[in-house]
Design goal:
By secondary structure, the chain is an alpha+beta fold. It is 54% helix and 20% strand. The chain contains 8 helices and 9 strands. The longest helix has 45 residues. The N and C termini lie far apart (96 Å).
Amino acid sequence: MLQDKLDLGALIGTGVAELAMRIVAALLILVIGLWLAKLIVKLVKKNRAIQKLAPEVQTFFASAVKVLLYALVIMMAVTTVGVPTASILAVLGSCGLAVGLALQGSLSNLAGGIMLMIFRPFKVGDFISDGAHDGTVKKITMFYTVIATADNLQITLPNGALANAAIKNLNANDIRRLDIDVTLSPAADKEKVCALLLDCAKANTLVLQDPAPEALVTVTEGGLPTFKLRTWFNSGDYWTVYFGLNEAVQKTLTANELPLAHQQVDLHTDK
């Protein structure tokens, strides 16, 4: 009887010692593994091939590598303690299903982020509009895209919504077109007005001569002649050309005693 108790005590002691060694080994794997994972992520970010990619792709790729390495280290640590791999996978599967149902929106954003990285409808630095918000893209993460509005407000947009929205990228093309419409009285000399509008365009050094500026005449529903000044310029010069041409047109028409009955500006972003 005493011998049985001694054998049972020795067995328990051996089991405890073995479990303790496994826990210590798991902790070492966890500490060293996470440290190595951080080091690998840093090396990935510094890799020349990665640095040649767009900034948003670099961030997305580094985040994906970090998540995968952390998951691998944690699984190795748990397995070392003695938990069967099949049990871990079964638990992860069940948790994944529950989390997936609870985080459908987040998963949609993740899928949207992947689609944005693949098709790249815009990049960091582009001025975009999704119909509800517009601004300069500052950062593209796995789940969200951050933009800064013209008045320097920060807006965080979900990637899932962006991937399914009609995105207007105002920096996609090298040149843009600006149409300035002015409506005058029927007595206005059409040839004179067109010549004055073209003079305004030619006086602006930022307006391109190829494609050449155009001055066209249409008629409104009320029978008033509408003169359209159509100009092309480099995308980065939009605001300078916009304000400069509007001011020049108003001053020129006023100086020639041709007051505006109506003015409208139409923006075109493709050639």
